[in-house]
Specification:
heterodimer, A: mainly beta, 4-stranded antiparallel β-sheet, globular, B: mainly beta, 6-stranded mixed β-sheet
């Protein structure tokens, strides 16, 4: 039972480079979301999706793009990496019920130099 | 604005002592509430959740939390701390509706002293 799979686990980028963080879930959940975790700030919502073809912005969307072409996949794209995007990124998947609990991937630790 | 506040970014207890981690939410409408735990270099794992079925909720690893509407609180407790409880704990709230967004507190790092 894979759950939520994130790749890569670690990544170092140079300022200005672009990359895509991958997230896949095998639980047929409708809701998926991306968070970034920074010391003392908890988890902040970047983008989320309520189903295939539907995405919306969270609290801190600037510098990131998402798409949701399938139920299973929800990639996060950094368009032009900046040092301020150095963080740990978590993807989460949630069943559609309001009481459903989110399942998290193991995270991607990104450093932008 | 929908938010959740965790009082105390760091809490230290002795092994065997009571653990109390505080969480308050802001809303006139009772939300759905969650506690997650994060061990070093790992993702988040659900400890327990409140979904209006019962105000006292029991979770994994001996943790429990009580929903108090009058205090807008959902504090996490464990009667006797174990060394393996050392981790970061996050309170989270969901208000339902079309977006069903999950909003996190800033976390509390629990240290357990021998």
């Amino acid at each position: 039972n894979a759950g939520v799979t994130q790749t890569p686990k670690f990544q170092v980028l140079k300022t200005g480079q672009s990359m895509t963080l991958q997230c896949a879930q095998d639980m047929n959940h409708e809701y998926m979301s991306w968070y970034r975790q920074d010391p003392g700030m908890g988890l902040r919502l970047i983008h989320y999706s309520v189903g295939a073809g539907i995405t919306d912005q969270g609290e801190v969307p600037n510098g990131y793009n998402v798409s949701r072409s399938t139920t299973e996949d929800f990639p996060l794209r950094l368009l032009s990496a900046a040092p301020s995007q150095t963080s740990v990124y978590f993807c989460a998947s949630t069943p559609s019920q309001e009481t459903g609990s989110a399942f998290f991937g193991q995270g991607t630790r990104l450093t932008v130099v | 604005a929908q938010s959740v506040t965790q009082l105390g970014s760091h809490v230290s207890v002795s092994e065997g002592a009571l653990v109390l981690l505080r969480c308050n939410y802001s809303s006139s409408v009772p939300p759905y509430l969650f506690w997650y735990v994060q061990y070093p270099n790992q993702g988040l794992q659900l400890l327990l959740k409140y979904t209006s079925a019962a105000t006292l909720v029991k979770g994994i690893n001996g943790f429990e939390a009580e929903f108090k509407k009058s205090e807008t609180s959902f504090h996490l407790t464990k009667p006797s701390a174990h060394m393996s409880d050392a981790a970061e704990y996050f309170c989270a709230v969901r208000y339902g509706g079309a977006t069903n967004k999950l909003i996190f507190g800033t976390g509390t790092l629990l240290a357990v002293q021998p």
